[in-house]
Amino acid sequence: MGTTPRRILLTLLTLLTLFLLGTVIVLSTVVHYFGVHSRDVITQGDMDRYERMSRTADAEARRVVEIEITGVEGEGDGDGESEGVDWEVLVPQETEEVTTPRIPKIIHQTWKTEDVPEKWSKVREECMEMHPDYEYLLWTDISSRSFIATHYPSFLPTFDSYRYPIQRADAIRYFVLHHFGGVYMDLDVGCRASLTPLLFVQGGVVLPRTIPVGVSNDVMLSSPRHPFFGMVVEELPKSAFPWWRRFGTNYPTVMFSTGPMFLSRVYSKWTTRITEARREGLGQEDQVMVLPRKWYGKNATPEERETTAIFSHFYGSSWHECVFVFNFSLLFLSNPFRFPPYSLSLS
């Protein structure tokens, strides 16, 4: 009688050990494959440089306007300065070579129709007021399909075949960034600070870092025709699961076909290509830069959200609840003895 319970206990412990070992191996593989390379993460020094570039460009724009108004640069008070303009304040002492951002001042957003829900309209309007010199493009179900049919007709069969509407909402954001460039923001993402410094990122693409691993697609910035988003749109048809390869629910299907896990996979493929290119002596002009949580705002500490975050995040959809469960599960399994390492948002 005493031997049998011990055997059962030993068997259970063995199975538990194997399960935990398998979990560690799987999660380590996921982190390795979908992880963010440290060289791509924007640092404080990088952000300081982008802000200086932004100030320099702004000062140069004001100087041009002043010249257009007066007709002659320096006309005004007789000592080489235009009246009422303090150029020592407007023009930073430390200037940068680049005064034109690689990323254009366009903000893209998506919704089913042109009637944006009231709860998101205020968030959108506040961001528009903060960026009056930006162009705003709202992509609806109708305009999205028309855009794909006109500019990327070979993708239209895949676009129409998606089972879930959110897959089309994911896909269109990649295509408009590839075609026009600019900033993509979900409607439930707001602005806490100016986006303009991010337009000067040297690589021409910014993706936000998310937890537990990889990058997200609720905020993205890109220069027009950037080769990274060229790769993204090329990979989309390959990741469109036919009916026999769909997952059991909508969430994993979307995540791995068009959502953040898909984008993280393409990012991983891109970093491998860039690493190989650097071995051949090529530059960093097409590097994808990753925005850490202190500026991204999601999963940031309360202090970071108040002092450094560029974006604010609002939630309220069932989709975000699915994202929360997925992130919670992966994060807990990856480090159950140190959970949560910081604030865990819904997506």
Structural description of this entry:
There is one protein chain. By secondary structure, this protein is an alpha/beta fold. Helix 7 (about 165-180) runs antiparallel to helix 8 and helix 8 (about 225-240) crosses helix 10. The chain is globular, with a radius of gyration of 24 Å. The model is unreliable at about 75-95 and about 330-345 (pLDDT under 50). Strand 1, helix 4 and strand 2 form a beta-alpha-beta unit. The protein has a six-stranded mixed sheet with strand order 2-1-3-6-5-7. It contains 13 helices and eight strands.
Number of DSSP strand runs: 8
* First and last CA, distance: 51 Å
- Please give the count of helices: 13
Helical residue percent?
Answer: 40-55%
Global geometry: globular
Radius of gyration: 24 Å
Q: Please give the largest β-sheet.
A: 6 strands, mixed
H/E element sequence:
HHHEHEHHHEEEEHHHEHHEH
Q: Return the structural class.
A: alpha/beta
Q: How much is the average pLDDT? A: 81
The strand line-up of the biggest sheet is 2-1-3-6-5-7
Uncertain runs: 75-96, 328-347
β-strand amount:
5-15%
Please render the helix and strand layout as text.
Elements: H1 3-34, H2 44-70, H3 87-90, E1 106-110, H4 118-130, E2 135-139, H5 141-151, H6 156-161, H7 165-179, E3 182-185, E4 189-191, E5 205-208, E6 219-222, H8 227-239, H9 250-257, H10 260-279, E7 288-291, H11 293-296, H12 302-307, E8 311-313, H13 318-334
Parallel strand pairs: 1-2, 1-3, 5-7
Antiparallel strand pairs: 3-6, 4-8, 5-6
